[in-house]
Structure formats: C-alpha cells, structure tokens
Amino acid sequence: MNLSELRTGQTASVTRVGGDGPFRRRLLEMGFLTGTDVYVEKYAPLRDPIELILKGYHVSLRVDEAARIQVENVREVKTAHA
Amino acid sequence: MPEKSITIALAGNPNAGKSTIFNNLTGTRQKVGNWPGVTVEKKEGHLKTNGYDLAVVDLPGTYSLTAYSIEEIVARNFVLDEKPDVVVDIIDTSNLERNLYLATQLRELDTKVIFVLNMADLARERGVKINADKLSELLDVPVVFTVGNRNQGTQELLKTIISVAEADIDFPRTRRVYYGKDIEKAVGELSEFIREKTSAELPYHIRWIAIKLLENDRIVKERILQSANPQGEAILQEAELKRQRLRDFFDEEPEIVMTDHRYGFIAGIVKEVVKTVSKQRVDVSRQIDQVLTNRLLGLPIFVFFIWAMFQLTFSLGAYPMDWIDAGVGWLGEGAGRILPEGLLADLIVNGVIAGVGSVAIFLPNILILFFCIALFEDTGYMARAAFLMDKVMHLIGLHGKSFIPMLMGFGCNAPAIMATRTLESEKDRILTILINPLMSCSARLPVYILLAGAFFGARAGNAIFSIYALGIVLAISVGRLFRSTLLKGKVAPFVMELPPYRVPMFKGLLIHMWDRSKIFLKKIGGVILIGSVIVWFLSAFPRQVQFSRDYQAEIAQIGAHYGAGIEAAHGDVLERLVSERDEAVSALETLQAKEKIERSYIGRLGKVLSPVFAPIGMDWRGSVAILTGFVAKEIVVSTMGVLYAAGADEDEKSEALKTALKKSGMTPLSAYAMMAFVLIYVPCLATVAVIRRETNSWKWTIFSIAYSTTLAWIVAFIIYQGGKAIGLAVC
Ligand SMILES: Nc1nc2c(ncn2[C@@H]2O[C@H](COP(=O)(O)OP(=O)(O)O)[C@@H](O)[C@H]2O)c(=O)[nH]1
Ligand SMILES: [Mg+2]
Fold this sequence. Notes:
The complex is a heterodimer.
Chain A: E1 10-17, H1 21-29, E2 37-43, E3 50-54, E4 57-61, H2 63-66, E5 69-76
Antiparallel strand pairs in A: 1-2, 1-5, 2-3, 3-4
Chain B: E1 4-12, H1 18-26, E2 30-34, E3 41-49, E4 52-58, H2 70-82, E5 86-92, H3 96-108, E6 113-118, H4 120-125, E7 128-130, H5 132-139, E8 143-145, H6 154-166, H7 181-197, H8 206-214, H9 218-227, H10 232-250, H11 254-273, E9 274-276, H12 284-292, H13 298-316, H14 318-338, H15 343-360, H16 363-379, H17 381-394, H18 403-408, H19 413-418, H20 426-435, H21 445-456, H22 460-484, E10 496-497, H23 506-540, H24 551-568, H25 571-599, H26 601-613, H27 620-628, H28 635-643, H29 655-663, H30 668-680, H31 685-695, H32 698-725
Parallel strand pairs in B: 1-4, 1-5, 5-6, 6-8
Antiparallel strand pairs in B: 2-3, 3-4, 7-9
Helix pairs in contact in B: 3-11, 7-8, 7-10, 9-10, 13-16, 14-15, 15-23, 16-23, 20-22, 21-22, 21-29, 21-30, 22-30, 23-31, 24-25, 25-26, 26-27, 27-28, 30-32, 31-32
Guanosine-5'-diphosphate is lined by residues 12, 14-20, 61, 118-119, 121-122, 147-149, 378, 502, 504-505, 508 of chain B.
C-alpha cells in the first residue's frame, strides 16, 4: 500500500521510499525512514498536495510523490503522535 | 590593542530562527547581496565586542548539505572554502531530530561548530527537556540555549563564539557518525588509497572526501579531478568500485544507507538527551490551520488575504504616491526655474528627474507589498499559500510558491519579480520571472482604457478583460513551453515544511521589508537613470530641427493679428479674443511638438521601424509610442497624445485624443492588436532592471526582452491579419 491511498486521520509506517535518486535522498533526509510513523493530517482543498506529520513536524507532499512511498500497518488514531 | 577579526557563519534549517538570531547579533548593520554567480540571497553583518570584530554571514537555510540544491552547495562551499572561524548551527529545539541531521553533517566538515538550541521556549512548552551537557559531551560540541524572538541567550552565544574561535581544537574528532562495519571499511580503504595517491595538499580532510565520494557527491568529484591530478581519475575509479561493491551488498545506493545511519546515530543521541514529559496541550498552530487550510474555507480565506494585500498596497499606497508625484513635479519645476534654459535644464528636468521620478513613484507600493510579504513569510502563512495553490501552479510546472509573485504582477511586475526570492529552486525562479510580465501590470491599464474606450465603446470592458485573459493564457502556454525546453529538468519535489504559525517580530518585519526595498532603490536607480537619459536623448535630439513651416513666425503673426483687437476690446469680447488667440497658438505649438518628435531620433527610428509594425496594423506614430513605452508603459499614452496632435497633456480619458485616433486610420482591429502588443512586449525599464538583478544574468535578461517582443509581434500579427482575413477590419 502506498501513502497516497491513506485517508485523513490515518497513520502508517514507512517501509520503502521509491522514486529517483535525488528525490529519495531528499525524503530520507527529511526523515521518511523505514519504520517511521507518518500521520495524514489533511488534503489540500484541491485534493493535492497532502499534509503529513512525522517526527513531530508538518510537511506537505504532492499526491504523486506520496504514491512513491510504501507503507504498512495502517491504523486510525485520534491524535498525531507521529 | 588591535581588534581581532572573527568570521562566523550561521547555518540551520529553514524556520529555525536563523534570521532572528542574525538580527539579534548584528542589529541593523547588515548588507544584503547575492552569492557570487547565483541568485541566492547573501546577508552579512558586523559587530564589535570585547576587542573583537565579528563578521557574521547568514548561510542559506537548508535541511542538509547534500549537494543537490544551490542553497546547499552555497552553504557548504562557504564553510569549506572560506573557512569561517566558527560555524554556528541554529537548531529548532522543538524539532530536534530533523535539525540534528544538518548538525551532524556540519560536524563532519571538521570546522569549529557551535550548536544553538533555539526555540527553547517552545520545547519547554511542549514538555520536551533537553540535557544540554549530555548533548555537548556526546557530540563534542559547545551548546547554547536561546530564545530568538525575545533576544535571550545572545550574550552567552557571543561569549561562546569568541572562546571557541580562540581555542585550539584537534581534528579529527573521535565522536562522529559510525556508518556500520562495511561502509566504515570502505571509507577507511578509500582514505588510504587517496593518501597514497596524492602527495600534494588535498582541499579537504581525507575522511570527509572518502565519505563524499562514496556518496557520489558531484561537487567533490569535480574538485578531486581538479586538485589531485593526475591521480584524480584513479581515485574516482576506486570510489566507483567501492560504491558498486556496497550497492551489491546492501542492494541499495550507498548514500541511502549512509543517510539511514546518520539518522540512526541521531536517534541514539535523541534517546539519551531528550526527556519528554507528556503534557496534554492544545496545539494552537494546528487549530489555526484547521481553519486556514480547511477544505471549504481555505481558498476563500486565501483569496481574501490576497485581496486585502492588494487593497493595502494600491489604495493606501496611492496617497504617498500622490505626494511623490507632486514632489517630483515640484522638483522639476524648481530645477527648471533655477537652471538657465537650455540643454542642461532639459536633460535634468525631462530626462533625470522625470525618469527617476517615474520609478520612485513605485516606492510606496513596494514598501507596503514587501511588508505584507514579510508578514506572510514570518507568520508561516506563505507555506500555506503554496500548499493551497500548488495544484494550480503545477499545471505550468511551477511550485505553489510561485503563485504570489504571479499575482503581484497584476499590480507591478518589478516588486513581483523581486518576490520570486522566496522560491527555492533556481529554475522555478527563472521561469516565474520570465512569465511574470505577462501578468498585465497596472501601468498598462491606461493604454487599454484609451484604445478600448476609443474603439470599442460599450464593449470596452470586455475588450480589456480579454486582454488580461490573453496574458494569463499566454503565461500558461509559454510557461509550459519553457518548462519542457529551456528549463527542462525535474520539477523540484514539493517536500515543503509547514512550520508552526508564529507571531512575527515587528523589527524583523521592518528589516525584511527594508532590505528588499533598498535593493530596488539602489541598484534599480542607476539603470533607470541611464535608460531614461537615453530615451530623453533620442527624443530631444537633434536640437536643431528643420521644421516644415516657420512656427515661431506664425505664432508671432497670430500675436500681431490679435494684438490690436485685444488692446481695444473690453469684457466678453476681450475674453473671446484672448481665448481665440490662445487656441490658435496652442494648435500651432502642438503641431510643432508633433513635428519635433517626428524629426527627432526616436521619430526617425519609428519611421525606420514602421515596416516592421505595418503588418500588425501600426503606423510610425504607433511605433514611436511603443518605443517610448519601454521606459514606462503609461508613457505610451502621452506619446500618442503628442503624435496624434492632440497635445501632450492628454490622458486616457481625453475625448480629443480618442477622436484624433479614430480619424488617424486606426481600426478597432488594429487598436486591439496594439493592446495585445502593449500587453506582451518588453517589460518596462524598471522591470528589466529587476530581471537583470534577480536572474543575475544578462543572458536571461536579453532573452526575456527578445522572447516577449517576438511573441508580442506574432500575437499582434495573428490578431490583425487573422482578423482582416475573416473580415473584421470594419467592425
Ligand atoms: N517562539 C519562538 N519563536 C522564535 C524563536 N526564534 C525565532 N522565532 C520566530 O520564528 C519565526 C521564524 O524565524 P526566522 O528567524 O525568520 O527563521 P529562519 O527561516 O531560520 O530565518 C519568526 O516568526 C521568529 O519570530 C524562538 O526562540 N522562540
Ligand atoms: Mg530567514
């Protein structure tokens, strides 16, 4: 399953970041490491990009970029502890 | 005692409070410029303390020192090549883990580093406790706490800077990131290989070079080829071999594995130094965002903010603009009175004062606009604006952040183009700059009002609206075209942090605003001055014009003709005679002015160029008006006033000028073609100067002029010839 399939309010753990070299590296540097929990805070009004919370900060990604991030262990949580 | 100079560089993630700390350290003694060769902003400041002269350099805000973006390269090269005495890393304590990524990379450079734990207040609020001594010990780096927006910790930071700069520190340090057995082995072997192969001094220390080569770092590879000749090739080959081996082993790029290890190292540190006392608290910033980027409310609120910004800029700005206008007029008159009539007076009044005045008048707009932008940036709303608009801008291959500069273009392109500084990717910035003038600025409106008013009557509004729409459509098409040709390359990933909302500091806002306005005044002033003097010269020379009639004599004749009558007359008759005489005189003067322009260099140029303009339905008068419009587009109207013999003081509402235009052989079709041309062709001089400044390249500046003028001609040609072909000429 990939990150862009998640709904608002769901959390999942990153398993793998795909995409080309620089993009992957950038995401990893921003903390999208294997095992990191990512919470979907909301989608923008035009449904793209997505706002995520990870490692205690908010970051936005385009939907097609989020689609390159594989996740597992999807769960519903009330608040973001990610 | 002579003062000792210390250079310090401020590094840090965006939004960590770097600018705030920089302002705290240096006060207002700052200099804003560009890093050489690139359009990244460089800020430098000075302070003197305890017999030391500190030069503080603000490095671009980055999340890492990987050589991908220009900002990262600039920051890294400064540390490596300029060798500042101390690098101060500003860390957002409330976001420690991600901030430590850059911190560990800085430490690997083996320069003297100080960690500043800024936003200490926020961390405390969140119930995050940090054991600074432990952190300092684990990383072997001095640590200072600060609260930037309350100017806390600044003195302690200064003391630490000086003591670190004076201290002898041995490199290499022991406490560094451990990359795991296999990578460490490769690093060790590669280091050894490099040591054996090179006798000469290497630019950087060997472990770092080896790490960077294993990470396939483009810049370091280039440097090695340059400096370690002739063994450079061999070193790179060896590195590639090692990379291959590691890739096979991990089934992954080595740099990815190494990034993972750095975060692993950081996780270990965070575990030891951070204690979170879980406090259940309301996250105010998150709640604000539930409204401001709400699915239903987000866009309307955004539109409202933008509307408010425009109102403020152009309504409030109108008052000081009137004052400046009056001041410039007064100055011109005064100078005209003091200086003896002649060339010099003409140059100063009509060239220098009028030209510079035409730009100075934008200053209030610029100040207000930049204040609003600074407000958007410092509160954190700018990132939300990009978040909201990214989908739309992505259609042109641009980042959401490009939306604000594009929108500002409808007001004035000069500050709009300066606002592209908020864009991180240089390609995005150049593309936004190139298409920005297609947003029809307010100076072009008088031209539309005049032409549409004269030729489209009740449908004038629709005609003008369609011109604005044409500009937007062209911007989208041209943007897509450039993106897929000239500025090809991957669209920068939209990995954008949405920082918490913060109450901005008034002083910070003012500094922000002033920095940018100053650039506008200083650098732009010179170019404008030269440009307006050139246009003045072209329209004022040659001085001695061979007129087709002797105007002076004719005017004298009229005087004589009415002279006796006026002397004898009284009351109504006198009034009638005087006004008759004045009318006759001014009609002649208008004709003379027209002929003077016609025979001036610019008039001749217009005539020479008229074959170029003929296919788009413009005669030589139109060509001249277009030429003078280069200084400022609203000048097109006053030039047309002179050339169509309606008098120079005509404005866009003048009925006389409209009548003259209708009689001149212009048709609605050619008028519309001219409106389109004015929309698209060369942005005004102020904008060209800003483009030069912001792209830092004559190549892009000239390209911008060339493409816009060519496009203008093509579009006008299609409108005029196409319209004629389908028989619209007489509508
Ligand atoms: N609460 C808090 N806010 C701060 C602190 N330092 C800076 N700020 C605010 O954080 C925002 C971003 O700071 P700025 O210096 O522009 O960050 P930069 O992007 O690193 O240059 C501004 O609104 C500052 O007023 C701090 O220690 N505590
Ligand atoms: Mg800043």
